[in-house]
Amino acid sequence: MMMDTAPTIMNPSLAHPPPVASTPVQDAVKACQFGDEDALQELLEPATGRALVDVNDRDAEDVPLLHWAAINDRRGVVKYLLKRGADTCAIGGVLKESALMWAARQGYMTIIVDLLQAGADCLQRNTYGQTALHLAAQRGHVNTVLVVLAAGTPVSSKDSKGFTPLMYATKLRISNVDLIRVLLNYGPSPGVEEKDLEEGNTPLHWAIVGGVQSPYALSPILKAGASLDAANKAGFTPEELALSLGNQGLGGYLKTCRNIPIRARDVPLKRGLFLPLIQLLWCFGFVNTFGCWGCLGGAAGIGATSSLTYKIVQFDANWVPLGVALWSLVLIVASEAAFLWEEQAALRSMATLLPALVTLCFLYKSMATKPGYLAMDPSAREMAINRLAEEGRLNSETLCTTCIVEKTPRSKHCDTCGRCILRFDHHCPFVANCVGQNNHRFFVGFLFFAVVGISSFLWNLYSYGQAECGEWAMWRCVFGHSKFLGCTAILAAYHDVWIGLLLLTHLRMVLINMTTYESIKGRRWVDNTTHGKPFYVRYPTNCFRFFFRPGRESGRMAGAYGRVPTQDLDMMGKKDEDALDSMEGGASRDGGMNANESRVV
Ligand SMILES: [Zn+2]
Ligand SMILES: [Zn+2]
């Protein structure tokens, strides 16, 4: 059968195209280039007489037939040749390359999978000592890089010039973020400190030589631990190299990088946790001294301390919102205990203090519980990559290039945590953690008891003001009695409103089995039958699973896509499955059907 796409009729490394001739081998080469299986079969297995061509015959340029089929993405011909016993390790062309290398240079993923399954050696090297991985990295073929890595090529293998695939990638393809991430994250040692033999450049040097413009493009390699002090053979550090090449902006950026703690290297600085306490007390003190106008001074103080302290006392800003939540709670409890506690009405105060204690417990649980990370052991990862490649679905939608794991329908990568989170809801700065499959219920508990406790505090305050001064003068009375108490009241009212609204949206999402992320990105789930609720089963089932079987649904959903992460299955025992099935009756089957109909696009 003739293919209508124009074939690649020469290896880029060849100086001349094959001479036009009508020898049987030349006809076979042409059949391979054009994907003409019938013509090829006629030459290799004629109906009558002896075969005119052998499957391992070569053309005048010493290139085997398999190479021509591979470089032209003729999958049918490749499969036919492999079935006929073509040598997968044969080398050909000026650069003495294998068919796998020719396909890798072009990025033909399915051909590469076929060749590897037929026994092609991914460790073979050409005359420059380059493997298929080097060639794919040079051309920026992320999928091919993944497949040859999964086949066992070491990620930091060097060619005869001492270049690793990462050096080629940073030099030629620095803007290809997925490629850089895969090379940095696939193995335990990505080789960011390696130097080539000629110039002694590290991958960071090569990125600068390659003309990187955006400092953002360098952040993955800097986070992976690239040294800012490594000098090349000419004695230049990356910063000096950027300046010598006239890239002042990049040089300046690399200079400031020395002062920024890189999270991969440094322990997060939790001093940020205490900044809100200082700020709140500062603000309260101002109001206490200067009355209502003190609010302005307090607000200015918060702004100034936020920027100043960050520069003077370095800390991880991720801990600041958690500090706000924690210290607000402490101030409310302190106000309740100091001003509103009465012997006769101790029960009323307990209605604030007990929920505050429970809130604190749930805050801790939300913070300390791992949200559920998507993880794969190396062998499962290799199988997943091969399967996705074979199905032609290997891309950044199905595989996380940072974690190198196959995504599940409800997982999402969190840049702050640097991990893929199961049933991702959102990254919550107030608990300094991702809210996902395993801690979402604790987060909802935190919101619920916070609203109960704060509302009770405000009610006690209202009663207190009413008793002291009568209804109309209440707020003036509270401020008159203690400005500190007045400040806490404003803080509490503010928290009550936004936490209350957040609680309502989360309760609604628990009922319909959605996450915040899915609500925002609702259009990703094409869904004609479930009215925008692709994971809905039944209200009681949704709630039961949310609070008592958080791992279960993720596994079922993953199953609906034919992808079951081992971790999910481990988390739900067989017994739980049976118990739930008997409890839910037909509802879960409906849920399964609905799940099948929705697709991530
Ligand atoms: Zn990830
Ligand atoms: Zn996160």
From TrEMBL:
UniProt subcellular location? Membrane
Chain residue ranges for the region called Disordered: 1-22, 579-601
Which InterPro entries does its entry note? Ankyrin_rpt (IPR002110), Ankyrin_rpt-contain_sf (IPR036770), Palmitoyltrfase_DHHC (IPR001594)
The Palmitoyltransferase DHHC domain covers 396-521
Name a GO CC annotation attached to this entry. Answer: membrane
The ANK repeats are found at: 128-160, 161-195, 199-233
The record's SMART domains line, in alphabetical order, gives: ANK
**Protein name per Swiss-Prot or TrEMBL:** Palmitoyltransferase
User: Any stretches that span the bilayer, and where are they?
Assistant: 273-296, 317-339, 345-364, 442-462, 482-504
Query: Could you give the domain comment from the record?
Result: The DHHC domain is required for palmitoyltransferase activity.
Tell me how this protein sits in the membrane.
Answer: Multi-pass membrane protein
Using the UniProt record, name the top-level EC class of this enzyme in a single word: transferase
Family according to the record: Belongs to the DHHC palmitoyltransferase family.
Q: Which Pfam families match?
A: Ank (PF00023), Ank_2 (PF12796), DHHC (PF01529)
Q: What is its EC number?
A: 2.3.1.225
Q: Which UniProt keywords apply?
A: Acyltransferase, ANK repeat, Membrane, Repeat, Transferase, Transmembrane, Transmembrane helix
Entries under Gene3D superfamilies matching the protein:
Ankyrin repeat-containing domain
What reaction does this enzyme carry out catalytically? L-cysteinyl-[protein] + hexadecanoyl-CoA = S-hexadecanoyl-L-cysteinyl-[protein] + CoA
For molecular function, the Gene Ontology terms on record are: protein-cysteine S-palmitoyltransferase activity
